[in-house]
């Protein structure tokens, strides 16, 4: 909302905000560290929105557009995606968000719910089963991990995990 507007606080808005942050962090996840680069038009639009009575709805819309562009670039130009991701973090810091590493945020709340060491050990066992082409064992381990309330994400950089909602 704008600076002088009332805040619409509810459980639904909290859930929506959490989902939005997850989307941002998923876009950042797995990208190499880079200096902010590109996205000058995004910076201009973000600045204009913030200078208009702290117009966070429009500023957030710009950040979401950046996420879409990062995800698009991820397929063709990882360096450009990483530079734009750094720019996204730079702009988001004005709002006090995206201060954590992506994996840290996506695993937040795991303590007390799952044993991270056990999840990591199961992931390694699953990777070994996949390397041996033992698909049945690999699937069994994935099912075991899923039953723990953990989602696995296989990517070019390896397998990562996060808590299911």
TrEMBL record:
Keyword Ligase attributed: yes
Pfam family, one: DALR_2
Domain annotation Cysteinyl-tRNA synthetase class Ia DALR: ranges: 45-106
UniProt GO MF annotations: ATP binding; cysteine-tRNA ligase activity
Name of the protein in its database record: Cysteine--tRNA ligase
Cited SUPFAM superfamilies: Anticodon-binding domain of a subclass of class I aminoacyl-tRNA synthetases
Keywords assigned by UniProt, alphabetized: Aminoacyl-tRNA synthetase, ATP-binding, Ligase, Nucleotide-binding
GO cellular component annotations of the record: cytosol
GO biological process: cysteinyl-tRNA aminoacylation
Compartments, as annotated in UniProt: Cytoplasm
Coiled coil (residue ranges): none
